[in-house]
Amino acid sequence: LRLKEVRLATAMRLLLEPLNLTFVVKNEVMVITSRPRAEGQLVVATYSVPDLLRDGESVNTELERLGELIQSMIEPNTWSDVGGAANIKANPSTQSLVVRQTSANQTRIRELLETMRSVGKRPTTKDK
Q: Could you tell me which residues come within 8 angstroms of residue 72 by beta carbon, excluding any fewer than 6 positions away?
């Protein structure tokens, strides 16, 4: 496998996926494990997102829109809305999202938010 200018997380996913393996980060150490085992462990992370909310819209509406975007792009079948165990809760007072999801999917969510920040993109209904 030859890759140029890709994130380590992306390279690891590409290497491990054909083997039905994945990785999780625990206490700053990368652990390679089976996909079912990693997927069974949900962790909670909070994402501060005031910079991704549109001006002039209600914070609740914007947090809900961002949460829906995440759910549509990151393992859509794992969320509680469709019978999965993962969920997202909006916290309007801190303009953040509290996400309960697998460690691997938390990594994907962080990458999505970083990408949105790097291109100055804000979620719209067209993004769904």
A: 128
